[in-house]
Automatic annotation (TrEMBL):
Protein name as it appears in the record: oligopeptidase A
Residue ranges constituting the Oligopeptidase A N-terminal domain according to the UniProt record: 64-182
Keywords, sorted A to Z: Hydrolase, Metal-binding, Metalloprotease, Protease, Zinc
Pfam families per the UniProt record, alphabetical: Peptidase_M3, TOP_N
Domain of life: Bacteria
SUPFAM superfamilies named among the record's database cross-references: Metalloproteases ('zincins'), catalytic domain
The species this protein was found in: Psychroflexus salinarum
Catalytic activity, EC: 3.4.24.70
Cofactor(s) needed by this chain: Zn(2+)
Amino acid sequence: MKIYSKLIVLSLLTLSIACKQKSKENSMKENSLLKEWDGPYQGVPNFESMNLEDLEPAMDYAIEKHLSEIQDIANSTEPATFENTIEAMERAGKLVDRVYTYYGIWSSNLSSDKFREIQQKLSPKLSDYQSKIRQNEKLFERIKTVHDNSLEENLKPQEQRVVELVYKSFEMNGANLNDEDKARYAEINKELSKYYTDFSNNILHDEENYVTFLNEDQLSGLSDSFIKSAKKEAERQEKPGQYAIVNTRSSMDPFLTYSDERELREKVWRNYYSRGDNEDEYDNNELIKKILKLRDERVKLLGYDNYAQWRLQDRMAKNPENAMNLLMAVWPPAIARVEEEVEDMQEVANDENAEIEIEAWDYRYYAEKVRQEKYDLDSEEVKNYLVLDNLTDAIFYVAGRLFDFEFSEITDGSVPVFHENVKVFEVTKSTDGSHVGLFYLDPYARKGKRSGAWATTYRSYTSFDGETNVLASNNSNFVKAGEGEPVLVSWDDAETFFHEFGHALHFLSADVKYPTLNGGVRDYTEFQSQLLERWIYTDEVINSYLKHHETGEPMPKELIAKIKKASKFNQGFATTEFLASAIMDMKYHTTDPSEIDPKTFEKETLDDLGMPKELVMRHRSPHFGHVFSGEGYATGYYGYLWADVLTSDAAEAFAEAEGGFYDETLSNKLVEFLFAPRNAIDPAEAYRLFRGKDAEIDALMRDRGFPVPKEN
């Protein structure tokens, strides 16, 4: 009788669990973020119906599903093979990818106080979820078996590459640790995820809340287009009749370049470079100390001397010494050039009887005066020819010439967008009309959108489970003009626009079988985008797309000549502010963190380097989001310079080619070896296939107008 009663209870319990599971499944079917991507173009994100209230339950459910898929792979009784282990892992987690697309939109494009509350809850959950996968012993044993067998088997090249990348990723993230160390490793990751979120949100707070409002009598030196945009921004911020200088680079930079109001320049400069450093609840200095200590503790568990040593082992640089050697090779000529630039600026200030010594908030202002005097080049005159809509047409033209891509705007509402300012374009092959994917363009600054410019994907190309199209996105922070007014941008911003489109082209041209191969090596993936910047200097772009916003006349040849002549101007400033940030990044991660107080460490390190007092790091430590809002660029900021060595060398190849920058043979090699493979080929080998040799620093030095090292 007792056995019978227990059976009844067990049956009822099983039935109850099944009912709860069924109820959960049904409720999840109504979740806006879990719904299948339907509609045209192989299905698109349901941006029009995404509901923030659905985010946390959707992510919880998606994580649960993925972990279940991983358990099935790990617990398989079949011998481990490439197909039932690596391919099965590549196929798993699609629901998490879908939800994470929406998460990324709210995080980067539509942040709010409510989202940030949810983000604080989800960050440790996401960290814990990733640790459960990477520290799954049974799963790693299967991966290791496949990896060891692959050394003896003849796998296809992309199969071998994905095996190596997956194995290395697990190894680097604690798969070989004992149980106690694994637990601590996972706990550290969870703590770090919270600190990264806090760091990022603190920056966003200071960007949103430190706005400089100007009156009518404080606009001297500013262009009409900038004034109109600033007035429009003030109206958006409910300050009609005033002019808003928001705390982002795209607003700060032109203000510091043109404003005649020195005290206001200093105020705007201090607001911008003090983000995360205001000794309040949003100050990031304590977070930096915590992040550095946890990173150091984590890599010590793995047996590494410092974080940089661990991080760079699978990068092109291989170790921090190689990265630092490159940085320090360029540092002396860069600061020497700064001295020359400051002398020129001080002379102009003296001639104007300004009675000042050049300070950091004066650098852009007087550099512009020197530019006009030395090269007779007025940046405001140049801006008149840099209309955002025309630049969009220009990048599409370049994509057509090099990649055979055609972009057609979709205006029938068939593709939902997450904000009314977002435009969507279908990408097809010009030669045969075949579909490639979609390109989303989100160009304007707004509250809740992180500063800067970036590229991302909502879906990447793969072919192992049938071909998928690409959903790529570019995001910028241009200040939106008034109704009927063109958006005019600086030459630097125009280059950045081309740069981010280079990332999009890298996504759109991918030809890889497995999702893992869509990743990248950090000091290599900036190369493709940096290279694309060079096409803005081509005659085809200048003559056809850089047209005056009022007359429609193309940019005069005289102005083009001035731009090209001045292209190496201010390289001391540009190179030194970057190098200072890259060197600080490396120093932070090769120094005992117990000895580091960020404010003191930053100052003492820069003093030891001989940092010119007239400028600052491009990203000061308390708002160095590349490094402290996550780990993508931590000890990786140097990668921009490493990639620029490749860029300078590749640009020389195009300059020497018979057809110049549109040489068909070289363009085909560009796509075949540098864009399409993504991470399916070792980057160094991919570059040699394109160029026939390794890149050398000499090209970089020539490119920046610095003396080439004598030993070379």
